[in-house]
Design goal:
The protein has four helices and five strands, in the order H-H-H-H-E-E-E-E-E. Strands 1, 2, 3, 4 and 5 form a five-stranded antiparallel beta sheet that branches. It is about 25% helix and about 25% strand.
């Protein structure tokens, strides 16, 4: 097609006139972004998304949460034990070396969900020590992990002890409410 033939099919407005369905180019819509006021996501979608992102960032910045994620990756078999070499004292490293080959936090089957830190919290019994726990969730399974962090003379935090709780089913049903347990005698 020559340039003159191409130019004759374009009007002064800049839109093409040839053929059915020709007109303005299709609009780009990005479904990943929240819409503005009155849209399907609601007027407060952006603020809600921002708050969730800020909470997740605060959790990641907490020292015990950071250690919980590293321990989870090691004990689920996603990272080797020597990955924790500079972050664990010798006694805790020995505990990890004993626990890790069995990968106690690994999903049961290949198609199962990957474990994640559902909740992590810590307590400071004295300056330079954090005793923390993490609730590890994998689908309908819950595991508890407790660990102790100590601030060394080199001003680095290191894990000094790790313990894992028993495997339990998640007490939340599909509606998100908790089941009541009968009181023990």
């Amino acid at each position: 097609m020559s340039t003159t033939a191409r130019n004759t099919s374009v009007r002064n407005t800049g839109t093409r006139t040839g053929g059915p369905g020709r007109g303005a180019p299709p609009r780009r819509t990005d479904t990943r972004r929240p819409t503005g006021r009155g849209g399907p996501a609601g007027p407060h979608a952006l603020a809600t998304h921002r708050r969730e992102r800020e909470r997740a960032e605060q959790r990641r910045n907490q020292l015990h949460y950071w250690f919980a994620e590293r321990l989870l990756l090691t004990l689920s078999g996603q990272r080797p034990v020597h990955w924790m070499l500079g972050y664990a004292l010798p006694a805790a490293y020995d505990q990890l070396a004993e626990l890790a080959p069995g990968a106690p936090l690994r999903p049961l089957a290949a198609g199962r969900p990957v474990p994640y830190v559902e909740r992590c919290d810590g307590f400071r019994p004295r300056p330079g020590v954090i005793e923390a726990f993490a609730r590890i969730s994998t689908g309908d399974r819950l595991r508890a992990m407790a660990f102790r962090l100590e601030h060394g003379t080199d001003r680095r935090w290191r894990c000094s002890a790790v313990e894992l709780g028993a495997d339990r089913r998640n007490p939340r049903n599909a509606t998100g409410t908790e089941h009541r347990r009968a009181p023990s005698l």
